[in-house]
Structures are given as structure tokens and as C-alpha cells.
Amino acid sequence: MRRLVVGTMTTPGYNEWWVRRINDNTPKPSPKNSQSIEEHLRVVPSELEIIRQDFERKNSDLEKKIKQMEEEKMNLILDIDVQKLETEKLRKGKNKVEEDLDSLKTDYKNVCL
Predict the structure, then answer these.
(1) Where do the coiled-coil regions begin and end (predicted)?
(2) Model's pTM, two decimal places?
(3) How many CA atoms does the CB half-sphere of 41 hold within 13 Å?
(4) Where are the domains of the chain?
């Protein structure tokens, strides 16, 4: 019985080419796309997360505006109270002056008679 032994059918040039081809397919860092591992592995937020962040930012802005408007409202209420007090004081002064004028008129009439 005869046996046939078959060796590899490749040449050394083919083997070198094959190794180079495999090595060429491995990803290598390129200078134009150099990112750190942290940047490469960073999680990109989902659309829902982006919308939530936008909502929270707008909500925060509106809360600040509401707080500012409430402070303005309190200041206006205080201004109104001050104006009311001044008006009442002037009204009392006017009434006093009118009473004094009436009294002077009556005194003048009495003197003239």
C-alpha cells in the first residue's frame, strides 16, 4: 500500500502576503482620528435624555423668572402701601387746611360786620 503525503500548497511569498494582509486589517490609531479611550468609550445621551436636560434647563429658567416676578410684586405692593399712606396724609392735611380756611372766612366776616 502506498501513501501519498501532501504538503502545504503555498509558497513563502504567499505566506508573507497573507500575514501582511491580516495585519493590514487590524485597526490602528490614525493621527487624524486620535481620541482618548475615555472619549471613544463615552456614552452618547439618548434623545430622551437630551429632551429631559433641555426641559430641566427651561424649568430652572422659568423658576428664576417666577422668583424675580414675585420679588417685583412684593416691591410693588410695598410701594402701593407707601403711596396710600402718603395720600391719606395729604388728604388729612387738605381737610385741615379747608377747615382753617372756613374758620378764617367766618372770622373775617365777623370782623367786617
Answers:
(1) 52-107
(2) 0.47
(3) 3
(4) 68-113
